[in-house]
Every structure is written in structure tokens, then in C-alpha cells.
């Protein structure tokens, strides 16, 4: 009989929200860390959400998940981040009507400065962090500047949702299974400037550009569809995506924890420093990566046309501007 593994501590911030509600069953049910990895769930939210979070805790208990060895539900950063091994940060200040992007950046910058400081003090020194709250890449960068004792490579931002969206759109167009479409790549920011790249993607071994013989769709319509998908979901649902966001978080953390399969390339927002694509250092930029032993490595050598390079630079420029705005608002 194999010995039982030590439980790992996993914090989810914004745990009482819609993404939290869709994500907790995936994490607690073994879909992220695997069916043999016990976990202690740390659930963090703001004080007005505590009553709701209490209900979520009751439901987790009522699910009788075999892997859940403890639940900590709190509105205290110190308690929530105590000794955590993995942090999935969904909590942030949502964009309100009439709010300028600059104001959203500033509000979230102050949240992620504080989050970083407490995480640095309280979490495991090898804590692996996924930032989901928007602006995700810049929040991750702000956090990283405040976590000097956690390796910068351990701080990532979610672009797997965009990657999955790209695979879904291509599969639908081909009348194929989404799982047959592999290696769609997202470059840049999780925003409307992101660049979904398909020239390394294939369907059952056939390059996407061969399978879909329509350059105008692949170089324009497809890119716009992926870029606008989040806004379309908000317009239709009245809320930001939650089910698909939770599913993408599950995929991101699963692959980071277990490693990528041979030939599999995934997209993650990661430290751009020293990247092989000429993107400025010091950003959290989404690149194609492979993962081994919980360390990601950027896959270089993708061929890029001038037009594609321009798309990569447009999203880089937005990330630089976001970083500058955060610095201006917080003296970082
Ligand atoms: C999404 O991509 O669905 C969200 O990040 C959109 C948003 O602005 O909340």
C-alpha cells in the first residue's frame, strides 16, 4: 500500500465569488493536484462576503471530498496565507460603471502590493502563485515586486482561458473535438491586445493553417474573436466568465503541478526577463512554455511575420504602460 502524501495548503482568494464557486469543486475533487494529493483549503474573501463563504464551507463539507483534510475560511490575509504552498488569487477590485482603467489599475495595485507583502511574510518560500484577478498580468507583476523572498518564476498570470478559447473556436470551425487542437499560443497581456498565435497549433498532426485554409480568418477574425470573448461573455451573462475561468485555472495549475506532456506547449503569463522573443524584461507576459519539476521554460524559435511581431509589440506596449501607471499611482 502506498503511503499517504502530506497535505498541501492551497489558498483561493475571492473564494465566495462566482469563479471560486466553480473552482473549489475542481480543486477539492482532485482535478488540479491529482487524485492522490490531500489538500488543506484556505479560503479568503472580504468581510462582507463572510456569511456567503460560511455557506460555501458547509457545501464543501457536504460534498465529503476525500482529499480535503481541512478548511480555513477567513477575511484575514495573515491567516489565509499562513504556510500556503499554492496561491490562486482571484480576488480583486472589479471594474465599476464609469471607472477609468487607470483607476482600476490603481485600486488593484494597492490590493496586490498588500497581498504580496503578506504572502512574502506568511506563505511557504516555494509558494506557487497564479493571479487571475484583472488586470492579471500587471497584478502579478505588482505582487512579484512585493514578494522578494519568493522566486519571481513562481508568480504567474492566467492566459490559459484565452488559449482554451482559441482551441474551442478552431475546433468549432473544423467540426472537431477541442482536445484534438493543440498548441494554440497566447502572447502578451490577458486583455484585448493579446495575440493568439496559431502557427505552431495543429489538429491531429495537421497544421491549423493547412486544415483551415483561410488566412483572412486566421490572421484577423480569429484573433479578434479570442480578444473579445471575455467582453462578449460579460455582455451575454451580465457577469464575467466563471465556469470557463475556473476550468482554465484548473488546467494551468494542473500542468504546472504535474508538468507538460511530451510535445505539449501551454501558455502562461510569466516573467519576461531574458525571453527569446525580444520582449522587454520585467513584465509578466504570456509566452509558450513547457513545464518540468514545477518550473516553466519559454519555448523559443516560433517563426513570426512582421505583422505578427507588431502584434506582439502592441501587447508589450500595453503591459509597459500598465506597469508605468501602477508605478505612478503607488511609487513602486
Ligand atoms: C475574461 O477573459 O473572461 C475576463 O477576464 C473578462 C473580464 O474583464 O472580467
From TrEMBL:
GO terms for molecular function: L-malate dehydrogenase (NAD+) activity. The keyword RNA-binding does not apply. SUPFAM superfamilies: LDH C-terminal domain-like, NAD(P)-binding Rossmann-fold domains. The active site is at 190 (proton acceptor). Substrate binds at residues 95, 101, 134, 165. GO terms for biological process: malate metabolic process. It is an enzyme of class 1 (oxidoreductase). Keywords: Coiled coil, NAD, Oxidoreductase. Residues 305-332 form a coiled coil. Its EC number is 1.1.1.37. The keyword Coiled coil applies. NAD(+) binds at residues 14-20, 45, 108, 132-134. Residues 9-152 form the Lactate/malate dehydrogenase N-terminal domain. InterPro entries: L-lactate/malate_DH, Lactate/malate_DH_C, Lactate/malate_DH_N, Lactate_DH/Glyco_Ohase_4_C, Malate_DH_type2, NAD(P)-bd_dom_sf. Residues 159-328 form the Lactate/malate dehydrogenase C-terminal domain. Belongs to the LDH/MDH superfamily. MDH type 2 family. This is Malate dehydrogenase, cytoplasmic. It comes from Hirondellea gigas.
